[in-house]
């Protein structure tokens, strides 16, 4: 049975995942590995203050997944190379992870690199391939397809222009329908 409280276990796993990243980076970029190693304790402390236990667990799993992915794939460049960051996120989506999981993994990687002072414009561009949380036009179209196309016309036809409540209700309905479309 595990004897440490959940937050302590999460803290230990986070430290271990950062150490694993440092080890992986050492081969490819000793300077960046040294930088990450020098601020790992600060990152852990900051994250313990900044994030909920659930977020810490999620980010820790995400960093573990990133390190494990890099170890098990063929590679000829650093895990911090923009192409490798993008490849990791694309592969995570192809493996069947939900869009929100991939977004969280991108956030964990981005936050780690920012907090370590290793963030760059090229790396930011690579992370942008990550699916957005915003719905696409196709998603918005699917959401509105459950509404009858003539609903607004039917509402407008049923209002009494002399009754202020009918006019108000029709305006509210129009706003709701417009926001769904």
Query: Uncertain runs with pLDDT below 50, 5 residues or more?
Result: 132-136, 138-144
Q: Termini separation (Å)?
A: 52 Å
Say how many strands there are. 0
Radius of gyration: 24 Å
The main β sheet shows up as: none
Percentage of residues assigned to helices: over 70%
SSE order = HHHHHHHHH
Shape: elongated
Structural class: mainly alpha
Structure commentary:
With 181 residues, the protein is mostly helical. The chain is built from 9 helices and no strands. It has helices spanning 6-28, 30-50, 53-72, 82-94, 99-115, 121-127, 137-144, 151-158, 164-180. α4 runs antiparallel to α5. It is elongated.
The gist of it:
With 181 residues, the chain is mostly helical. It is built from 9 helices and no strands.
Structural features:
181 residues, mainly alpha, single chain
Which helices and strands occur, and which strands form pairs?
Layout: H1 6-28, H2 30-50, H3 53-72, H4 82-94, H5 99-115, H6 121-127, H7 137-144, H8 151-158, H9 164-180
Helix pairs in contact: 1-2, 1-3, 3-5, 4-5, 4-6
